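Hypothesis: this fold can be encoded by more than one sequence.
Test: take the structure tokens below, design a sequence, compare later.
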């Protein structure tokens, strides 16, 4: 049972029978709640951060403290499952016209189960994203610059019919429908135009962000973030923790694991 307007796991409860359901509902007070089927014995929790046409799929461990929830893991999904998770994340955003959002999926075997895909204020804090923080910042910069320079305007018309028409097609299987949705997604986000713009106008941004993250200025930002987030007796531990993970990102630049999907 989850609040329809919840966040950060607040108000979420697991119910196993009618008695627990009644107890949880009574405890929810005046909040509007909804029920969601549990996915038992899943293999991977994938959390996707999407900014415009770009998406980073990350291995998420919700049972751990916030600073450890995002695992630095590459190739933790098979190519086919990874493509499905990626498409679902981008599809949700294109359908609802969201351009900054995160989507959560549970993967069990080769089955993907979307469980949470309405995070209009996704987590992009240095203290939690750590290794992935530089990617998030430079992608926000690129997307905002692209929208500003090209005078991109959000489409207020959801145009749901085009999505439903694909869903109703009997000549397409599931994978075929994902591919067809992909065309609608790329059209909404002007993906080809965006990537051409980044290659032609913003080719220097990757190197610029790398220099920034590897600078004394960024290190001071890291230290200040820790000091304003954690109690004094934990400062030394978390400064070392974040320096290590951000340093790994710096060392990996130019190699495939540093790239978004």
């Amino acid at each position: 049972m989850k609040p329809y307007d919840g966040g950060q796991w607040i108000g979420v409860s697991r119910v196993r029978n009618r008695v627990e359901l009644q107890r949880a509902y009574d405890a929810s007070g005046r909040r509007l709640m909804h029920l969601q089927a549990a996915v038992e014995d899943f293999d991977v929790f994938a959390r996707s951060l999407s900014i415009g046409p770009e998406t980073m799929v990350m291995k998420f461990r919700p049972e751990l403290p916030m600073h450890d929830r995002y695992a630095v893991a590459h190739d933790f999904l098979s190519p086919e499952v990874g493509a499905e998770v990626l498409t679902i994340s981008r599809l949700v955003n294109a359908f609802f016209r969201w351009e900054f959002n995160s989507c959560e999926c549970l993967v069990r075997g080769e089955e993907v189960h979307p469980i949470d895909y309405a995070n209009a204020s996704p987590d992009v804090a240095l203290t939690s994203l750590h290794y992935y923080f530089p990617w998030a910042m430079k992608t926000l910069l690129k997307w905002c610059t692209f929208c500003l320079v090209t005078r991109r305007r959000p489409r207020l018309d959801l145009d749901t019919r085009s999505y439903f028409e694909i869903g109703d097609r009997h000549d397409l299987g599931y994978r075929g429908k994902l591919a067809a949705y992909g065309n609608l997604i790329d059209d909404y986000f002007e993906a080809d135009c965006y990537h051409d713009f980044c290659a032609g106008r913003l080719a220097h941004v990757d190197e610029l962000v790398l220099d920034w993250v590897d600078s004394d200025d960024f290190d001071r930002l890291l230290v200040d973030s820790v000091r304003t987030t954690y109690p004094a007796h934990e400062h030394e531990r978390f400064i070392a923790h974040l320096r290590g993970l951000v340093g790994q990102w710096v060392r990996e630049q130019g190699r495939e694991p540093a790239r978004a999907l």
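The chain has a mean pLDDT of 93. The CA atoms of residues 78 and 110 lie 8 Å apart.
Hypothesis status: open.
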